[in-house]
Structures are given as C-alpha cells and as structure tokens.
Design goal:
The complex is a heterodimer. By secondary structure, chain A is an alpha+beta fold. In chain A, helix 14 packs antiparallel against helix 23 (about 750-795). The two termini of chain A are about 50 Å apart. By secondary structure, chain B is of the alpha+beta class. In chain B, the strands form two sheets. In chain B, strands 2-5-4 form a three-stranded antiparallel beta sheet. Chain B has a two-stranded parallel sheet with strand order 1-3. The longest helix of chain B has 27 residues, at about 85-110. The relative contact order of chain B is 0.17. The model of chain B is unreliable at about 1-10 (pLDDT under 50). The chains are: A alpha+beta, B alpha+beta. The interface between A and B is medium-sized, with 29 and 25 residues.
Chain lengths: ~900, ~110
C-alpha cells in the first residue's frame, strides 16, 4: 500500500463530501468540454450536450467505477464488521453476556495483581527529574547485601565536602508514633528534602532549612493520605496544633496527592530531622542513622560518582570505616576502604529488583491463570456456537468472501466483546482490590496492620498503565479465546455446510479436549497451592509456642531517663498483673558467651532476666530455685540454666551448686556501645528450668541457655507484663498511658500477636490461593458441563441408535463420562507436576527462601486433597449430562430425523 | 473507418497511453482523451467511462498526481501530472510495449 493511496483513502474516509464533490465536478467538466467542442463543429447547444452525454455513457456508472478505485479501506471494513457484530450480539445476547462476564472476571482478577505490580515497579514518585535521585549506600564489602547506615554527622560531612551531587538530603523513617492518640507514621527529613525533590505543597508550605536549625521548629508537613486519614481532609488544617507523642506540633502544610517522599507508599507526615533528637538521641549509632539521598549532577554517571564518593570516604577521618561482626564471617572490612554504591531512589523497588520480579512473576501468573481458564471456557462456547453458524458462514464463503475476511469478521466480533469486558474488568479489579485489602486487614491482627512504616494498606491508584494493561489484555484474550474457534469455524466444506450438514472435519473434539485439559491443569495448580497453604496454616496455628503468650505484652525501647517513672506507671496501672524484665526482649537471642565447666567449653547464649520472668512466661523450674529478691544483678554470681545446658555439662551429676565460667568469645571485636552486659566471671548454678521449645518458624520463642539475674530498674532491659483481660485493648490503653511518661516510647507488642502472626500471614496466602483456586474450578466445571451437554445434544441421534441397538443406560453414561476423563486425567497430572516445578523454581529465589521454611511445598497430603477435589467435581459435572444422555428416548430421536 | 476503442486493444495499453500523454504537460481528463484521439488520427478513441476510473487508479498508485487549476474555460478543472514514480513506470511499460510490438511485427512478417 502506497503512501499516496493511504492519503487518498484517508481523505475519502474523513472528508467524503469533498471527495464526492470533486468527482462530480471533474466529470461535469469533461461533459462541458465535449459540449463546447461539438458546438464549435456547428451543433446547437442542446444537441451538443445530448451528444456529449451519449458519448460519455452513464455518468453515475463512471463515477461508481472511480469510487471503486479507492478500494474499501481498513476502517470501512472495520465499521462494517462492527455494525455486523453489534447485530449478531443483539441476536444472541445471552452468549454475549456470558463471554463478557467471563472475560471481565478474568481480566479483573489479573488486573488486581498488575495494579500492585505497577505500584511496586512502575509508579515513579511525582518529583522533579527522578532519574537523578540516588540513595548513597555504604556496603559492608563490595557486592554485599548488608549496608552500614550513615550517622547524621556523616551525612553532614557528605553534604559539606563532596561535589558529585547538586544537593544531598537526609531522611529517617520514623519509629511508630502517635498523633493525637492515633497511630501515625512519619519521616524525619533534613530541611532541604523538599527542595531537593523539587516539590511544593498544595496547602501551606513545605519544610525549609530554617525549620531544621537550632534544635528545630516543631512543625510537620502532612501527606495527602495523612491529611485525609488524620484530619478528615480539613481545608483549614494549616496552622492547626497537634500532639505528636505527647509534644505539641503545628501543621505547616499539606503535600499533593501522589507525592510519596520517594517511598512506595507515603508516610502520614514529615517532620524536621533536628526534632528526631526528642525521640531518638543522635549519640547512639543504631538509633541516629539516616538515609542519604542525593541529586546527581547532570552528566555524572552513578558508577563514577560512587567511586569518587568511596575514595573520598576512605580518606575522610569522620567517616566510619569498620563495623564489628555480630557473628563470625560478618562485619565490615578492616582495610580502611569504604565501599559506596548508589541506588536509584524513585519510589519504586530498586533494591534486588530482579529478585522481587521473580517473586512477583508467579503471582501475576497465578492470577493470569483465571483469565486463561476463562478464555478456554469462552473458546469452547464459541466453538459450539460456530457449529450453529455454519450455514451463515457457508453462505458468505460461497458469495466470495475469503476465509481471512470471515476470520477477521469473527475476531472483530470477539474484540468488541473483549473491550467491553476490559472496561468492566476495571470495575471488577477495583472491587476485588477493596475486598482483598479488607480481607487481609481482618485476617492480620490489628496490632500488626496499624501503620508502622507507611500510611497503611490502601487500594493502589489505577493509572494509565493499568488501563493500557487492560487494553492489551483485551487484545490478548481476544486472540486466546477467539482465534482457534474462528479458524475452526471457517474450515468447512462449502456444499455440505450450505445444506446444513455438519461435516466431520469441523467437529473440533481434539481442540475441545485440549482446552478442557489445560483448564484442569490450571485449576490443579491453584488448588494444590491452596491445599499446601491450608496445611501450613494449620501447622502454624497449632504450633507449639513454648511460652505463655495469651496475656503478655512486651514493652521495648524505653528512654532511660523515663525508666523509673515508667516502672511506677506500670505498677500503678490497674490492668497490669505482673511485671518482669529481660535483656534482650523474649524473642531475641542474647549474648553469646564461652561457657566452661572444668575442661569442657561450649558457646552458650546468655540472657539477663528478673526472677518474675520465669513465672510470667510459664517457664517452670525443674530443680533448685529461681533468683531471690536480693539477687538483682549478674554481680551476685548466680545463674539459672536451662535443662539442655545442665544435660550438656553434667549429664550424670547434679548441676546445683556447680560453678560455670563465662568468657568473652574469642575473636571479633565488639562495639563499645553494644557492650555485652554479661560480665565474664565464674557463676554458681542455683536452679534448672525447662528448655523453651517452639515449632514456630519466624518468631521463634525457643530458648535454651543461661539466665543471669537483673531487674526492671536496670538500663537497657525490656519489660514483659502480664495483663488482666484482653491484651489487645489493654495494649492500647497502656500505650496511651505510657506515652504520657515517655513520649518516645514506640513499641508495645503483644506476644499473642507475634505467636499468631505466622499463621495469619499463611492464612492470607491460603485465602488468596483458595479464592483463585475455586474460581478456576468453578469456571472449569461450568465449561466442562456445558461442553458435555452440548456434545450429548449433538450426538442425540447416535445415542438413540445405540440404545435402539441394545445399549443400556449404563453403557451410555460410561460412554459420555469416559470421553471427558482423558483430558481431566492429563490435566490433573500435568497440573500436579507444574505445582511441584513451580515450588522448586520459587524456592530457588532468595526472597522466597523464607516461604520455604514456612510451608511444605511437597506436602503429599495437600497434593492428594487438591487433586482429588478436582477429579471429584469434574466427575460429578460429567455425570449430569451423562444421565441426561441415558434418558434419551430412542424412538423419539429416531423419529425426529 | 470503424472506430477502435481502447479496451479492444491489448489490456493495459490505456495506462500506457495516459502516462505517455502526460509526459510533457499536466492535462485534465478531457484533454487527455482529445490528445490521444488527435495524435492517433482518430484511430484510438477512449471509452470515456473507462478513462476516469483509470485516472483514479493511476492516482492511487501514485504514478500521477492531481491538482485543481483554473482551465482555459475559466472553470476549475482537475489536472493530472506525471510523478517521478510515474515516469519510471512509463519507461518500464514503454519498453515492454516496444518488445511486444516488435515481437508481433516479426510474427506478422515471418510466420
């Protein structure tokens, strides 16, 4: 097709009146010229005109032939096909409705997954030139996963003394805070943060350098979400006072919707970094760290900038070069070289992006399976319908339509349906998103879902990418459900089709079996997954926790200056039954020490606990006694050991009264600020308690080691309290009460929540898999049912003949059921195999390793249950049409023909 | 002498004649038919009804270009002009015609 051709066709398409008028003019001009010539030869005007017209021949015919030269354009065909498609759909609204709703459901489900995918990978934050923004990371060693965060002093040095960035800002995601008594999440940022990102406030102002000077001004800037959730979108919010962890703040401004502060989901507020001192003193490194974000100078490559920064940092006296190992093999290099890496910082996943994709891809695939099954259903439906359209298609073929032309017509019909389905699919996906988030929220413990690092789980916005995805999905599904039936339907013998006979060739039983087989495969895959998750959820929910968790709360990260007041507040609080203290908190491991008795030395974990600890967590004494009230510190030289430790050192003897020597682990320096509170000295064993055994996988409460005495008054200890009544409500009241004493207090955790979290998380996965799986199964069963019913209808005569010849109803049932069993059997086997393969592939990715410890991906019972559910439902759905076939009256059918 | 209309000649010759006629100057449809008739001493008379479809076809193929101009009659007329690719096509068709007519010549003389 030539350019000129297109141009002329386009003109004829878009300005038909102009093309027509020109054609008329041209032909009229010819007649006029001819008339003039004949007049010059001496004819009268009338005669000349008549002759001229006669010589020319019929003008409309010539005009029509000229029009034919344009050909029929793509768009004219499309318009014609669409018109025809609309008429066809109006004639069979039920088919149209079935197709649209099935595809809309499939597209909606897969769009749910894509909406999250889009949020994590594509929705770059609304900031100026996001490509220039990078987070500076100091790696423990080149290529290492763990990084050493920067202190605020180090940030200042980077900002002051380096020149690869146009500017550098610091940001620190907050610990959980409370605004006016409600949980809120904030970020503490340097004064230039908003300037660096190039964003402005929609109400009031952003933070400035001045806010961050001289101890900081007590102001916050709200995110759109924070404004809506905490202040009900109050238009006069700027200037309003609020109480942030017991201290007065004022609202300086509100940011635009869609600004997330370079995170995947926005915090509620941003506050000046200088105010972090109120909550997290800068002196301790583990608490004073910040993220360093820079805007790279134009033209600088990230690699070169990282190299320059590394060289600068290695030479700079204020930049820390070394980190002590926590465990052997960890820790930073001691050669004085600082390894710097720049990581893109745009508000989408940038760290381990490939791995995250590898985790996301199977999820997207699982959701896509529903669309696939739906498409297979529709394809089957259209195949069946194709048979009833044989006569129509035969007529069109014999009138000269090419096969391609009819395939195109059929595909246009299908595309029209798919586009309607895509629009509906968007609504379906919105509803499903809202529903699934609601479900997740109600399954996970409220304590866990209350905001901890963002303004909470909300329905991600559906932007143009989601629409583009839906549009692409509509095209892809049109091909998936429409192409096969269209090709199959147009493959027919003309003459017999015209006579209304169904030719042997067009009976697409093989295609049909393939479709059913693939549907069963997909359902099997999903159902096996849900069975695996269900089993794991059950295992986790019934797991042995090891300690008493029903009514215990843990209070952590206590500001030392507020400690005495905190103890008083706890003791006075009416719902507190008992208070114990420990270092570290119950679910953490303590200090690893070399314990030696005589010549035997072993590495043993040591914890400091107050004497109430054992009773509070239900760790009972096996022999001897617990700490006496006056034994309040390790200096008293008494220890309680767990059973396993006693067995190890004194397998036959009595451990009570024996001496055990604790020493620092040889090798590996320890940070001064993280100094072990366990003195290296000799201790006397006064008691033996049971080992804490736990079968939980993530929050493992299991413990076996040496307990040394401490008290709640001791610095760095956490509190463990037993409460009266419901720990969830008590946690809230306690949080409010204690925050008055210690505004910086962040965390009160109920141990029940921690013990149940694992099961809850698995439950979420289970529900996800079970919903997808049952959707898949329902679609498969309905597809199988309708196909078999249709086939029975088709073979009515044949069955009638068989029965007339003496086949029993039983034979007929067997005949019909057996027909569907092969694809089902193949589907079940392939689906089960695929599930296992998927599990192997998934577990190979580092991010999914954790899942591997939680679930048993090759649980034989789960496979058996999942697969037999499919076989059972499919068999039942095959029996109904089979029974109907068996009830066929042979006489009636034979007579009907 | 019986008048000979083009379609009775070899198929495809109409295109060749139109392209050749337009080789020098742009012309409108009537002028093209007049010109062919004149030069062929009234032997070749183009069926008017097939001239315009042919012109439109050639235009779609990009071998000729159309332009509205005021004619000698003082009325707007559609003038056709040979394009660059049309010139190329003319050369191809002309040589093809030469080959063909020479072949027919030889057959007529020596067969």
């Amino acid at each position: 097709m030539k350019l000129n051709d297109l141009r002329l066709r386009a003109r004829a398409l878009f300005r038909p009146w102009k093309a027509e008028r020109e054609l008329d003019d041209e032909l009229a001009f010819h007649i006029q010229c001819e008339t003039r010539k004949l007049m010059a030869d001496g004819l009268s005007a009338r005669d000349a005109r008549r002759r001229a017209l006669a010589r020319f021949g019929p003008v409309p015919l010539a005009a029509d032939q000229c029009r034919d030269q344009r050909g029929i354009s793509f768009f004219e065909t499309l318009a014609r096909d669409l018109g025809f498609a609309l008429r066809m759909l109006r004639r069979t609204p039920l088919v149209a409705l079935t197709v649209v709703s099935t595809i809309a459901l499939g597209l909606g489900v897969v769009t749910v997954a894509f909406t999250f995918f889009n949020m994590f990978f594509f929705q770059v934050d609304a900031v100026r030139n996001p490509d220039e923004l990078f987070t500076v990371e100091r790696l423990e060693r080149p290529g290492s996963r763990s990084e050493i965060p920067f202190s605020r002093a180090e940030y200042e040095a980077i900002r002051r003394d380096t020149n690869v960035f146009t500017d550098v800002a610091a940001a620190r995601p907050s610990f959980p805070t409370r605004i006016d008594g409600r949980a809120a999440v904030g970020m503490f940022v340097s004064g230039n943060f908003f300037d660096l990102l190039g964003v402005t406030a929609v109400r009031g102002r952003t933070l400035t350098e001045a806010d961050n000077e001289a101890g900081g001004r007590a102001v916050v800037v709200l995110s759109h979400e924070g404004w809506q959730q905490l202040f009900a979108a109050d238009p006069a919010v700027v200037g309003r006072q609020l109480v942030l962890n017991g201290r007065p703040y004022a609202v300086a401004g509100v940011m635009a919707e869609g600004f997330r502060g370079l995170r995947q989901s926005p915090p509620h507020y941003w506050a000046p970094l200088a105010l972090l001192d109120q909550f997290r003193p800068a002196e301790t490194r583990s608490q004073g760290w910040v993220d360093v974000i820079g805007r790279l100078k134009p033209g600088t490559s990230p690699g070169a900038a990282a190299g320059a920064l590394g060289a600068w940092a290695s030479a700079h006296p204020d930049i820390r070069k070394f980190i002590a190992p926590k465990r052997p093999g960890e820790g930073g290099p001691q050669d004085g070289i600082v390894h710097i890496m720049l990581r893109e910082s745009r508000g989408v996943i940038s760290k381990d992006r490939t791995e995250a994709m590898m985790v996301f891809a199977p999820i997207l695939f699982a959701f896509g399976l529903i669309l696939m099954i739906g498409c297979a259903n529709v394809a089957n439906l259209l195949l069946a319908r194709g048979l009833s359209r044989h006569r129509e298609i035969g007529v069109r073929l014999s009138l000269g339509a090419t096969r391609w032309r009819i395939v195109r017509q059929l595909l246009t019909e299908n595309l029209l349906l798919a586009l309607v389905a895509a629009a509906l699919g968007f609504l379906v996906s919105r509803a499903l998103l809202a529903g699934s988030i609601h479900m997740v929220m109600s399954i996970l413990p409220p304590e866990f879902t209350e905001p901890t690092d963002s303004a909470g789980l909300t329905v991600p916005p559906g932007d143009w990418r989601v629409w583009a995805f839906l549009l692409g999905g509509a095209f892809v599904s049109t091909v998936m459900f429409g192409l096969l039936p269209a090709l199959q339907t147009t493959r027919l013998e003309l003459v017999r089709a015209m006579r209304g006979e169904v030719t042997r060739d067009a009976r697409p039983s093989r295609v049909r079996h393939m479709l059913i087989g693939s549907q069963v495969t997909a359902s099997a895959l999903l159902l096996v997954c849900s069975a695996v998750f269900l089993r794991s959820t059950y295992a986790s929910a019934t797991a042995e926790v090891g300690v008493r968790t029903d009514d215990t709360l843990v209070v952590r990260r206590i500001t030392e200056s507020a400690r005495p007041a905190m103890i008083r507040a706890l003791e006075d609080h009416p719902s507190i039954a008992a208070v114990a203290a420990s270092w570290p908190a119950p679910m953490q491991s303590g200090a690893s020490m070399d314990a030696s008795v005589g010549d035997t030395t072993a590495e043993i974990d040591c914890k400091l606990v107050s004497t109430q600890y054992f009773d509070l967590l239900g760790i009972n004494v096996l022999r001897g006694r617990l700490f006496a009230p006056e034994e309040r510190s390790p200096a008293t030289g008494v220890v309680v050991v767990s059973d396993a430790v006693a067995q190890r050192f004194w397998p036959n003897g009595d451990p009570l009264g024996q001496t055990i020597r604790l020493g620092r682990r040889s090798g590996g320096a320890t940070e001064p600020e993280e100094a072990s509170p366990v003195p290296a000295q000799a201790y006397t064993v006064i008691g033996v308690v049971r080992d804490v055994r736990s079968t939980l996988k993530i929050f493992d409460f299991g413990y076996s080691g040496i307990y040394l005495p401490t008290t709640a008054e001791q610095a760095n200890t956490s509190f463990i309290v037993r409460v009266h009544g419901d720990p969830v409500t008590t946690r809230r009241t306690l949080l409010d009460a204690l925050m008055k004493v210690d505004p910086a207090l962040g965390e009160i955790t109920s141990m029940k929540m921690m013990a149940g979290l694992e099961a809850a998380m698995l439950e979420v996965f289970f529900w996800m898999a079970v919903i997808l799986g049952s959707l898949a199964l329902a679609l498969t069963v309905s597809g199988l049912f309708s196909v078999l019913s249709y086939l029975v209808e088709q073979r009515r005569t044949e069955i009638g003949v068989r029965m007339a010849l003496g086949a029993t109803p039983r034979d007929i049932v067997t005949l019909v059921v057996r027909q569907s069993m092969r694809p089902i059997a193949i589907g079940v086997l392939v689906g089960g195999g695929l599930a296992a393969v998927t599990a192997v592939v998934l577990l190979a990715t580092p991010l999914a390793e954790m899942m591997g410890t939680l679930v048993r991906p090759f649980d034989p019972l789960a496979y058996a249950v999942g697969l037999s559910v499919i076989v059972a439902t499919c068999t039942v759905s095959a029996f109904v049409p089979a029974r109907r076939a068996a009830r066929i009256d042979p006489i009636a059918t034979l007579r009907a023909d | 002498m019986p008048r000979q209309t083009i379609p009775d000649l070899l198929p495809g010759t109409l295109d060749l004649l139109i392209l050749r006629t337009l080789q020098t100057d742009p012309m409108h449809g009537w002028a093209i038919s007049e010109r062919i008739q004149q030069i062929s001493h009234d032997v070749l008379q183009i069926n008017q009804g097939s001239l315009y479809p042919a012109l439109h076809r050639l235009e779609h193929q990009g071998w000729i270009d159309a332009e509205w101009r005021v004619s000698e009659l003082g009325r707007r007329a559609k003038y056709y002009r040979l394009t660059v690719s049309g010139r190329r096509q003319l050369a191809v068709e002309a040589s093809e015609w030469d080959r063909m007519s020479a072949a027919i010549d030889r057959v007529m003389k020596f067969a």
